[in-house]
Amino acid sequence: MVLAVALFCCPGTLVKAADGLQGKETAKEQLQLYAQAAVLMDADSGRVLYGKNAEAKLPMASTTKIMTCILALEYGNPDEVVEVSSYAASMPKVKLCVKSGEKYYMRDLLYSLMLESHNDSAVVIAEAVGGSVEGFAAMMNQKARDIGCFDSYFITPNGLDAKVNDTGKVHSTTAADLARIMAYCVTDSPEKERFLEITRTQSYHFTDVDGTRNFQCNNHNAFLGMMQEALSGKTGFTNNAGYCYVGAVESKGRIFTVALLACGWPNNKSYKWSDMKKLAAYGMERYQYRDLFEEQAFSDIPVRNGIAGKEGTPFEEAKISVALQAGEKSLPYLLCEDDQVEVKTRVEPVLDAPVAAGEQVGSVSYYLNGELIKRYPVCTESTVEKRSFLWIFGYILKLAFFL
Asked: Could you tell me if 181 and 151 are in contact, meaning their C-beta atoms sit under 8 angstroms apart?
C-alpha cells in the first residue's frame, strides 16, 4: 500500500506528517458549571464539543419525557382516543389530575406532557403506544440503542425515580446520551417538526373527549424566553436527580444541544439556566462550519499481467484510472481553532489482473483530532483483462497471419 498524508490544522495551518502529530486537541477552556454532569453537542454530527463527567450515569427526572414524546409521535396516532387507567390516574404530582375511565385525544396529552410535565399524562401515553408501561419502556430502551445511546436505561415514561429490584438497574442516562437524544428529536426524527411545534408552544387549551373538563397548559421551559437562539428544551426535577435540563439552540445554521444533570437542588432552581447559557455561548462563539472536502487527483495504477487497451501487446504495460467515489463535493463540519484535521489517502501501488470496474483500490479518510469522521472509497473506472496463455497464443497467431 502507498500512503500519502496531508495534515492541516484549521483554519489552515499546515503541519508535517513526519512531525508525529496525531491531531490531539489542545486543552479546552475549563468552564465553571454547577451541573455534576454536562455536555455541549453538535447536533448534526453528534460530536461532544464540551463535556463534564459526560459518561456518568445519573437519574434524569422529567427530561425523560423528550423520549416519551418522540416515540409517541413516531409510533402513535395524534388523533387516537386514549383511555385513562387507574394506574395512570394514581401518578403523583406534577399531574393533570385525569381520572380513571376518562378519554382524551393523544395530541392533547402530548402538550400536557411537554408543557406542564404531567406525570399521569406520560403514563396514559405510554400505555396507549406500548400497551403497558413495561412495553413502552422496552421501546424507549430500543430507541436509545438505535440512535447510539448505550448508557441509558429507561423504566418510567415520566422520569420518576425507579429501580429494577432483580437487576439493580435504575432509571438513568448520561449527559452525552441525553444530548444525543435531544439532537435526534430536533434534527433526525421524521417527526422533528411536530416535536418542535409542541415544545415551542407557550400555552395550549384542550378538553377531554366528552368536553366536560377544560385544561390550560403553559410552557415551563423558561429558557425559550432567555435567548433568541433557544430552539427547544425540557426541564426536570426529582429529589434524587436534582434539577436537570436538556435543550437545543440554533444559530447561523448550527444546532447545539446541551444536557445538564444534577444541576443543583432547592433552592438553586436557576443554576440550570446559568449553565445552559454558558454552554450555548461557548458553542456559538467558538465553533463555525468549515468545508473539509479536498479534491483528489490520482495517477493511473499499473496492472500486472493486464492487457493494455482493447488489443494491447505483451510488451505494453497495462494501467487503469481510478477516481474518488464521494457522491458529494463538500464535507461541512463544526470546528474551532484548536481542532486538527488530518486527511489520509491510501491507494494500491499496483494491481493484479483481472481488474473489474468499480473495484475499490484505496480510500481517502478524514480524521478530526485523531478520530475518523469520514472515509470515501477510491475505485477503478474501467476493466483490465488478464493476459492468459490463450491470449498470448492468439496474439502470436495474429502476428504470424499478418506477416
From this structure: no
Whether the Cβ atoms of residue 206 and residue 212 lie closer than 8 Å to each other: no
Q: Which of 297, 298, 293 is nearest to 366 (CA)?
A: 293
Would you list the DSSP string of 264-284? Answer: --TT-TTHHHHHHHHHHHHHH
Q: Is the dihedral of CA 144, 150, 153, 159 positive or negative?
A: negative
> What pTM value is reported for the model?
0.87
Give the model confidence (pLDDT) of 4-45 as tens digits: 444 444 443 333 232 222 333 334 578 999 999 999 999 999
- Whole-angstrom Cα Rg for the chain: 29
Angle of CA points 203, 206, 209, to nearest 5°: 165
Cα 203 to Cα 113: distance, rounded to the nearest angstrom: 12
The conformation of residue 386, written as its DSSP 8-state character, comes to: B
Nearest residue to 59 via CA among 252, 241, 280: 241
Dihedral over Cα of 39, 45, 46, 52: its sign:
negative
| Residue pLDDT, tens place only, 302-351 | 999 888 766 666 667 889 999 999 988 999 999 999 999 999 999 999 99
The C-alpha atoms of residue 248 and residue 42 are separated, in whole angstroms, by 10
Q: Is 6 exposed, middle or buried (0-12, 13-18, 19+ CB in 10 A)?
A: middle
Contact (Cβ atoms closer than 8 angstroms) between residue 377 and residue 337: no
Q: What is the rounded distance in angstroms from the CA atom of residue 150 to the CA atom of residue 145?
A: 6
